[in-house]
Design a protein that fits this description.
Blueprint lengths: L3 H16 L3 H13 L7 H26 L3 H22 L14 H9 L3 H9 L8 H31 L7 H24 L1
């Protein structure tokens, strides 16, 4: 069983990374904008399936590699921090593009593929999920249950954000503003990872 502090760190890390825009969240928002909330809800299942496959595969790879390469976790955290810093800058500069990204209907297959290939899975497996999740099946189940409880409402929130301008019921919700706020959060998470490495 995961300790309370390990679970709390995992919850905060997963929530921050799941909230930040990326290929999967952009597709969810685009689906909401194009198809509406009710017709896009099922896409969170495709997102979850994609992450379960990708995180599990990366986690197993890292667990085997870290036994012979003890420096690998630190390198992964450094790479994750740099990736997040780059992503934060990119998100800020491209904040307006989310509103024009709904060119076609997003299918479950498209979303699953984008999620399997999403670099966030490497971040989850290498830095956020506890190593025990890839060493014991019971710990994997617990970690994935926590992850699922976070992913579903956050995925639905992204669909709702995309659908908000379409419905006109929430005029104050602007995807560009949300993305800029997310950029600041991502930058803060990048700094916190770098700070943990420097200590």
């Amino acid at each position: 069983m995961l300790s309370l502090s390990t679970a709390a760190l995992m919850v905060s890390g997963c929530a921050i990374v799941l909230l930040m825009p990326g290929p999967t969240n952009t597709l969810l928002a685009a689906a909401g904008l194009r198809q509406g909330l009710r017709r896009s809800v099922h896409l969170t299942g495709a997102e979850l399936a994609g992450y379960l496959v990708s995180i599990s595969l990366w986690g197993i790879c890292f667990a085997h590699a870290s036994q012979s390469l003890s420096w690998l976790p630190k390198i992964l955290r450094l790479a994750s921090s740099l990736y997040l810093a780059w992503l934060a800058i990119r998100l800020w500069l491209t904040a307006n593009s989310i509103e024009t990204s709904a060119a076609s209907v997003v299918t479950a297959r498209t979303l699953f593929s984008a999620t399997v290939l999403n670099p966030k899975a490497i971040l989850f497996a290498g830095s956020i999920f506890p190593p025990a999740a890839f060493a014991r099946f019971a710990a994997w189940l617990e970690a994935m249950a926590i992850f699922t409880c976070l992913l579903i409402p956050i995925g639905l929130a992204w669909i709702a954000i995309g659908a908000a301008p379409r419905s006109g019921r929430l005029p104050f919700v602007r995807p560009a503003l949300f993305q800029r706020c997310a950029s600041v959060v991502v930058a803060a998470f990048s700094v916190s990872l770098m700070w943990a490495l420097a200590r």
